[in-house]
């Protein structure tokens, strides 16, 4: 890529750098139980994963809940999640080797997540991953979380790479939608969804042992058009989960 504009890889965190959805779901389920809610957290996250926790929680109450109360519930959920996941923090297989190879191949690299700074640190610093990212964009850096385009658009702007030169790694439909709204292409990571439940990814991987930076370049060159966000398709997929 020395003779052309650089490409950039933008990674979501939960479900992409790490396989933590079951622990996120368990934390939500414990919170729901405390408040007498019967919502199935795994099914809920399959639909809404990627949204801020307060937005997810807002959907499960049948009565209006003040923002301050939602934030308290979200903090409780975060504490439960960290407790449950404390001894299980491991990167997705092949991640570090892939990041090293991507850097050597000339890719710019960013993290684009809906998590708060302390949650980002809980993962990146424990796993010694922070140094691989040129840019880190989280909840505190954007006005609107996924499925809005802000997270990925800000990451691309900070990297200095045009959106059409960016590919997003996502495990969630709302994250995939955000990538397309940002005019980027997407590679699915099947920690949360089955491969057929994504909308229009370049490919779907189980982990980073299944992909090389050279293959990413081939996929980008073979698929130059960015898919359009498709709310109807996404809603139909939600119904199948």
Number of helices: 10
Q: Which oligomeric state applies? A: single chain
Helical content band: 40-55%
Number of strands: 6
User: What is the average per-residue confidence, as pLDDT, rounded to a whole number?
Assistant: 92
User: How are the strands of the largest sheet arranged?
Assistant: 3-2-1-4-5-6
SSE class: alpha/beta
Low-confidence stretches: 232-241
**How big is the Rg?**
17 Å
**What spatial form do the alpha-carbon principal axes imply?**
globular
Helix-strand layout with pairing:
Blueprint lengths: L7 E4 L9 H14 L6 H8 L4 H6 L8 H19 L9 H10 L3 E5 L4 H8 L10 E3 L12 H10 L6 E5 L2 H9 L3 E5 L14 E2 L7 H10 L8 H10 L1
Describe the structure.
By secondary structure, the protein is of the alpha/beta class. Helices cover 43% and strands 10% of the residues. The protein has helices at 21-34, 41-48, 53-58, 67-85, 95-104, 117-124, 150-159, 173-181, 213-222, 231-240; strands at residues 8-11, 108-112, 135-137, 166-170, 185-189, 204-205. The longest helix is centred in the N-terminal third of the chain and has 19 residues, at 67-85. Mean pLDDT is 92; it is low at 232-241.
Outline:
The protein is an alpha/beta fold and 241 residues long. It has 10 helices and 6 strands, in the order E-H-H-H-H-H-E-H-E-H-E-H-E-E-H-H.
């Amino acid at each position: 890529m020395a003779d052309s504009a650089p490409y950039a890889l933008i990674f979501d965190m939960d479900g992409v750098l790490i396989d933590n959805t079951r622990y996120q779901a368990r934390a939500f389920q414990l919170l729901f139980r405390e408040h007498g809610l019967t919502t199935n957290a795994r099914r809920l996250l399959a639909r809404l994963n990627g949204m801020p926790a307060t937005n997810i929680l807002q959907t499960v109450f049948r009565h209006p809940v003040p923002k301050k109360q939602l934030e308290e519930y979200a903090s409780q959920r975060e504490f439960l999640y960290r407790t449950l996941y404390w001894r299980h923090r491991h990167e997705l297989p092949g991640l570090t080797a892939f990041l090293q190879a991507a850097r050597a191949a000339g890719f710019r690299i960013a993290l684009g997540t809906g998590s708060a700074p302390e949650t980002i640190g809980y993962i990146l610093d424990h796993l010694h991953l922070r140094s691989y990212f040129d840019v880190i964009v989280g909840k505190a850096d954007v006005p609107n979380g996924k499925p809005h385009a802000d997270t990925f658009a800000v990451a691309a702007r900070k990297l200095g790479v045009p959106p059409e030169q960016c590919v997003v790694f996502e495990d969630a439909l709302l994250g995939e939608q955000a990538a397309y709204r940002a005019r980027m292409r997407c590679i699915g990571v099947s920690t949360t969804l089955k491969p057929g439940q994504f909308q229009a990814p370049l490919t779907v991987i189980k982990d980073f042992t299944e992909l090389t930076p050279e293959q990413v370049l081939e996929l980008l060159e073979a698929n130059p058009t960015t898919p359009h966000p498709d709310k109807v398709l996404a809603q139909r997929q939600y119904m199948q989960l």
